[in-house]
Amino acid sequence: MKKLLLSAAVLAMSTSFAFADTVRMGTEGAYPPYNFINDAGEVDGFERELGDELCKRAELTCEWVTNEWDSIIPNLVSGNYDTIIAGMSVTDERDEVIDFTQDYIPPSPSAIAALSDGINLGSAVIAAQTGTIQAAYIAESGATLVEFATPDETIAAVKNGEADAVLADKDFLAPIVAESNGELVFTGPDVSIGGGVGMGLRESDGELRAKFNTAISSMKADGTLNTMLKKWFGDEIATYE
Amino acid sequence: MFSFCAEPKTLEGVTWLACYLTTGKHIAFYGSFITVMVLIAITAPVALLFGFGGATAARSTIAPLRWFGKGYTAIVRGIPDIAFFLFFVIALDQAFEFLRHKVLCPEWTDPIRQGNDFVVCSAAKLPLSSSPQWVHETYGFFLAVLTFAIVFGAFAANVLYGGMRAVPRGQLETAEAYGMSRRQTFWRILVPQMWVYALPGLSNLWMILIKATPLLFLLGVEDIVYWARELGGSKTQVFSYPHGDWRLYYFLGLLVFYLALTKVSEVALAKLMARLTKGQATMGGEAQRKAVAS
């Protein structure tokens, strides 16, 4: 009964707010510099800055929500938030379930980081995050795949010897390798998988998708997107013409 | 928090640590301890209530009620917690939204299921997408309480059912001989005596409930284990306080917390057991009587 009363109270409170056009932006919050929770406890990173700018241009009120990577698509389609902006590469499998905007990060390579150069990738144990294009790539390549729920755990697995190497977006690995004081090195050639990174939306949300597409186009046109990419990923990042 | 924390990367030693431990993220971490305690404090009595209802239904003389009671314990106990949390909660949330949709938006003609999408009108959203984040979090919290209560209620129902059956038959026969009705026998004789038999099982459930809170993150409620993992993970220069992999220290902190909670629970449960044993027709009750007599 108490619970009934409480949920009724929550209901009553929530209905008293005006119906503003709030768009809930879903992200992972564990993938620096794409998106992460900063020390103040807020969502920060390239996608935070980009998302806020897109919302401003599309004249939308946006609110940030974090969700575990594993269940990020199911929670979008069941309506817990309205967009996924979490460094998600556009792939055919994902496109069957949700829709994507045009890409806001051009196709960029993945890379393999390990404790030493020259490991045999054919027989190595390679770590990747569950449900990523990198995990699918390793599974197909024949190497042994170990999956982890968060990107950080894939790095920790290599450092403590649980895995021989980690395959992830190069832009995610680059600062980690650079700051590891030589503990981690890139090995082998870069791997090109996946298209660019786009925002994910429900297939029934065509109107919102069009708004974000327009906003992304305008940011590409006036060069602000390129500036933002360079700010967060460094000068070597591929940019838009 | 402190005025000297403005430039974290210039700090060293104790001041660095003082600033580090008082970041907004750490405050959220400390707050999550309260979230977990509140969750346990609300869930335990609600689950007990569900359990009592389930056990009473399971021994009812009315067949459909009995089937319901037995079905509830059998089905819920048989489903893995993680499946229950992933499937049931989303289904429950959608059921609430579906009902609100039917009531609030009768003029809506589009289908609610569009391919993979679950689409209800914006007035039927629960909570509304325009409501602030804390409303969403509170809603998620109470969904969590409800789900935990249903899961643990099923286990508690089985324990209480066993407890009810363990009360000596002679006690109930005596009550009937005194002319008590079924209802009177149940409330005056059976219920007061069953707890002592049920308590060992219930205390197990309590201990498991304390440790089950990481399942909260599946519902979007950020609990202590989520924050420990998030804070302990290695941090690059993008963060104000970069550091290596410190998960070990954070998890050691959690270990201390859980052990302390377990110890407090054990002491409290031992006291409760001693009180419930008083005057009971059990070996423990007999021992207490002898101790007083000698």
Could you explain the architecture of this structure?
Chain A: InterPro entries: Iontro_rcpt_C (IPR001320), Solute-binding_3/MltF_N (IPR001638). The complex is a heterodimer of chains A (241) and B (294). By secondary structure, chain A is α/β, with parallel strands linked by helices. Chain A folds into 2 domains: 22-107 and 195-233, D-Maltodextrin-Binding Protein, domain 2 (3-Layer(aba) Sandwich), CATH 3.40.190; 110-191, D-Maltodextrin-Binding Protein, domain 2, CATH 3.40.190.10. Chain A has 9 helices and 13 strands. Chain A is globular. The termini of chain A are far apart. Chain B has 294 residues and is mainly alpha-helical. Chain B has one domain: MetI-like fold (Orthogonal Bundle), CATH 1.10.3720.10. Helix content of chain B is 70%, strand content 1%. Chain B is built from 10 helices and 2 strands. Chain B has helices at 13-20, 24-58, 63-78, 81-104, 133-166, 169-177, 182-211, 224-232, 247-277, 283-293; strands at residues 113-114, 117-118. The radius of gyration of chain B is 25 Å and the shape is flat. Chain B starts with 12 loop residues before the first helix and ends with a helix. The model of chain B has no long low-confidence stretch (mean pLDDT 88).
Give the overall shape of chain B, derived from the CA principal axes.
Answer: flat
- Beta-strand level of the residues of chain B, as a percent range? under 5%
CATH topology of chain B: MetI-like fold
Helix content of chain B: over 70%
**Assembly category:** heterodimer
**Percent strand of chain A:** 15-25%
How many separate structural domains of chain B? 1
Low-confidence stretches of chain B: none
Low-confidence stretches of chain A: 8-20
Query: Biggest interface and which pair forms it?
Result: A-B, 54 and 54 residues
The number of helical segments of chain B is 10
Shape of chain A: globular
- Count the domains of chain A: 2
Give the name of the CATH architecture of the largest domain in chain A: 3-Layer(aba) Sandwich
What's the CATH architecture of chain B?
Answer: Orthogonal Bundle
Distance between the termini of chain B: 62 Å
N-to-C order of helices and strands of chain A: HEEEEHEHEHEEEHEHEHEEHH
SS-based structural class of chain B? mainly alpha
Rounded to the nearest angstrom, the distance between the terminal CA atoms of chain A is 61 Å
